[in-house]
Amino acid sequence: MNSSAPAARRARAVESFRSAALDLAPIERGMSLFAVTRGQWSMIDAILVVLDSVPGPCAISLWTWTIADYDLRCVSQLMRCGRVSSARLIIDLAARSKNGPVIDSWIEMFGPASVSYVVTHAKIARIESTDGARYLLRGSMNLNNNPRFEQFDITEGGADFDLVERIEAGLPTGSDTNNSAARAASKITSAWSAAQLQMFGGFKPWKK
Fold first, then answer.
1. Is the distance from CB of 103 to CB of 93 less than 8 angstroms?
2. Which residues contact 51 (CB under 8 A, 6 or more apart)?
3. For an engineered disulfide with 84, which of 79, 92, 128, 176 has Cβ 3.0 to 4.6 Å away?
């Protein structure tokens, strides 16, 4: 099956009250699924379901606003057991001060090019398996559980995966990326005028 052919997609919608493993299956080429949960599973849980279903090791990238030590340990264990070949973290500038020790540990484990600081509130995961399947996961949930309504989408192949991959390729990497470079790479000013941004009080002056 051509995973990038929209006509080949089988769209499904699920109101999930069970686990990610039960409600996302089957994970397959050309899939397209939308789910509404009550927060009983997280983005990390969804990633694990995909990794359990495809040949590895897989290359993954994670977009998130914040990260906890548990998330780091989970990804680290996935790499140690051969399920992940590389991991990249795209995280909000605010995390530099809020989650500094966790991000430092991430860089120590996965290398200085494994982190990109940007201005973001997106929650996305990109997974590419050794057989060429390309899964894009996105939703309202963070990497951890949260007992409230959350929405989630997963697709395999197509322009959505390509778009996120292309944006990632244009982002600076490394813990020494200064705030100005991170903001410029985020291209917020390409969508908002300076006058419009004033409504939000401008960018927060996080310390470099």
1. no
2. 58, 78, 83, 84, 127
3. 79
